[in-house]
Specification:
By secondary structure, this protein is α+β, with helices and mostly antiparallel strands. The protein is 33% helix and 25% strand. It contains 5 helices and 6 strands, in the order αβββαβαββαα. Helix 1 packs across helix 4 (118-132). The longest helix has 15 residues, at 118-132. The two termini are 27 Å apart.
Length: 141
């Protein structure tokens, strides 16, 4: 998987988890006061204690809540992010690779694959950050 997400194929195979974390890490940490930490499962990116992106592996239906929400037993990598308004509604009802989560009304999940569009991921993660960051930080973008 290259940084642009264009592999030149229609393959929806899964990239390596560490590669996905590295790609997300560079994008998320470019945002003011953003930091990463280990989550109860996977890795999350936060601003002032609020999680704006979370990535994890689904393997053999674990963790079960994510497996059920994403409708996959895995292996799969999912990214969770926040959204609002018309975009939130569109993404929660778009179908694969997007899926709604039952635990937060403003959260959307995305199955990461080899052909994932990393320009779009950057936009989604940045918007999620804007929603959760204090207005003074969001205004710096």
């Amino acid at each position: 998987m290259d940084d642009a997400g264009d592999t030149g194929t229609d393959d929806r195979s899964q990239p390596a988890f560490d590669e996905v974390v590295e790609l997300l890490h560079g994008r998320a940490l470019a945002l003011p006061e953003a930091y990463s930490e280990a989550a109860w499962v996977g890795v999350r990116w936060r601003v002032r204690g609020r999680t704006f992106a979370h990535v994890l592996d689904i393997i053999d239906s674990h963790p079960p809540s994510y497996s059920k929400a994403a409708s996959t037993a895995g292996p799969a990598i999912v990214l969770m992010f926040r959204s609002t308004g018309d975009e939130l509604e569109a993404l929660r009802h778009a179908g694969a690779p997007y899926f709604p989560t039952p635990w937060r009304r403003d959260e959307v999940g995305l199955l990461i694959a080899s052909d994932t569009d990393w320009t779009e991921i950057t936009e989604l993660v940045t918007e999620s950050y804007r929603l959760l960051a204090p207005p003074t930080l969001g205004a710096r973008l």
